[in-house]
Amino acid sequence: MTYPTSLDVERIRKDFPVLSRELPGGRPLVYLDSGNSSQKPTPVVETVREHLAMHYSNVGRAMHALGAESTEAYESARDKVAAFIGAPSRDEVIFTKNASEALNLVAHAFGPHLWGSSGEGADPRFALGPGDEIVISEMEHHSNIVPWQLLVQRTGATLKWFGVTEEGRLDLSNLDELVTERTKIVSIAHQSNVLGTVNPVADVLRRAREVGALVMLDASQSVPHHPVDMAGLGVDFVAFTGHKMLGPSGIGVLWGRGELLDAMPPFLGGGEMIEAVWMDHSTYAPIPHKFEAGTPPIVEAIGLGAAVDYLQGIGMDAIEAHERELTAYALEALREVPTLRLIGPDTLDRRGATLSFTLEGIHPHDVGQILDDSFGIAVRVGHHCARPLHLRFGIPATTRASFYLYNTTGEIDALVRGLHHVQKVFA
Amino acid sequence: MIGESMYQELILEHYKHPQGRGLREPYDAEVHHVNPTCGDEITLRVKVGDAGRIEDVSYDGQGCSISQAAASVLHELTAGSTVEETLSVVDEFTRLMQGRGQVEADEDVLGDAVAFAGVAKFPARVKCALLSWMAYKDAVVRSASR
């Protein structure tokens, strides 16, 4: 079976200098770990270098030419990201340091606190205490589990979660019992970082709206790989990170509905997030700056803007189609490896280009080590920051291959050859 | 093929055919150690007999080939030796593992454990090799304080 793709992968690979380097021992690099972090194309590297070399200054505060240039570049990165994700307003795009910070920022908004000295600004949608509930899922990355655990520990609220089916789908059979009038927010992965599963957001959203709960998506694994539209999704908050979408590390994004962001208390206090400060109280800047205390990751944001330009130049539809082709090829190819157990959907139906698996009798750390040392194949091994999901499947760890726009079917062939070799070593 | 030096034949043999695996009675002390970064774990028991001689080291656990083979080699090396002798082997093994590949192994002291020399070049795997040996040291200390 073939799927049409308009990607000229060989040309794209030339934009990523690292892909043509050799590892010690003359091994060519086969990079199948983009779900962990993606490589960076020359335009991103050059944009960051050019800004640091010629335009750098602090943003928002400096009254001089470089300050203006830096501010202009930083804020235009926000415009690019807003357009890329179909945000109704650019002010709804908050720059954070990563997706984890974006998730923590939203979790922090909930609680019994009445912010402002006389309680003005407190919003019942964010009031949380004993009897209130938060719903997540068993397939979450730790960054969409721990902030909510900390929140319920602070407030006495209750944490609940969707289970995961044997096939690796969100188990919605008890949706109505799980998401109830007591639920304040449902926060789930848009796409699982282990299973590759793309979750049925609309079903969850429908129930959440019935009961008046907010909905947040951890879109770290979806925004880099699919066309994603905030208005179309209809949820309240979305978190994702720059380094998985060809941008630098140290820059993440929280998108939220403006009206909610306005109602939320600040997260971190500091410079630039204020309107006016007295010794005993402060008033706060409007969004997005209310949530961007201190000097932000300036060049990282600008680099993310360049990454967004690059992705749009290729086209997210084309990238999605290419990854779909790779996934189809890999699902087929991995089937030929004896004792390989795929953890996650084994068809193309509602899944992305992330494939996790086990090999009978061989620990993933040994698999990863031999793939790397013998063939230069970079995969991720371990629990991928999703330990509860691995416990659910009764395994300590998996080997994970994750693909992106620059990967080829030839690299999947190399992976399969590598796995056969691993099995020979441990036979 | 730089890394397969880590997977010495002897290590693979111990991994495929672990010696002394399984938890046995009687024992003086039992410990449970985990490596949180990779989830490897081991439960290990020590039985010390007359004149401070190790009668049995029994263990059970899960993990990569390095951690499991290291436990198997440990079982073989400790059998019949005095606690004191085994602790000097543990010290030498620890020195080798933490030597970043720069330390010359003393084969007279280490015996089969010298096969793990290649692991020292892989910082991420050193803890795998040391897991059972650290558990053993802990168990011996506990058995002495009983």
Describe it:
The complex is a heterodimer of chains A (427) and B (146). With 427 residues, chain A is α/β, with parallel strands linked by helices. Chain A has helices at 9-14, 42-55, 65-84, 99-108, 146-155, 175-178, 201-211, 230-233, 258-263, 298-314, 316-334, 364-375, 387-392, 409-425; strands at residues 22-23, 27-28, 30-31, 93-96, 133-137, 158-164, 170-171, 183-189, 214-218, 237-241, 252-256, 274-277, 282-284, 340-343, 354-359, 377-378, 380-382, 398-402. In chain A, strand 8, helix 7 (201-211) and strand 9 form a beta-alpha-beta unit. The radius of gyration of chain A is 22 Å and the shape is globular. By secondary structure, chain B is of the alpha+beta class. Chain B has a single domain (3-141), classed as Alpha-Beta Complex (Sufe protein. Chain: A), CATH 3.90.1010.10. Chain B contains 5 helices and 3 strands; from the N terminus they run H-E-E-E-H-H-H-H. Chain B has helices at 9-16, 65-78, 83-97, 107-110, 123-144, and strands at residues 29-35, 40-48, 54-62. Chain B has a 3-stranded antiparallel β-sheet, covered by helices on one side. In chain B, strand 1 (29-35) and strand 2 form a beta hairpin. In chain B, helix 2 packs parallel to helix 5 (123-144). The longest helix of chain B is centred in the last third of the chain and has 22 residues, at 123-144. The radius of gyration of chain B is 14 Å and the shape is globular. The mean pLDDT of chain B is 91. The A-B interface holds A 24-25, 362-366, 369-370, 372-374, 382-383, 387, 396-397, 425-426 and B 1-4, 6-7, 12, 15-16, 37-40, 62-66, 122, 125, 128.
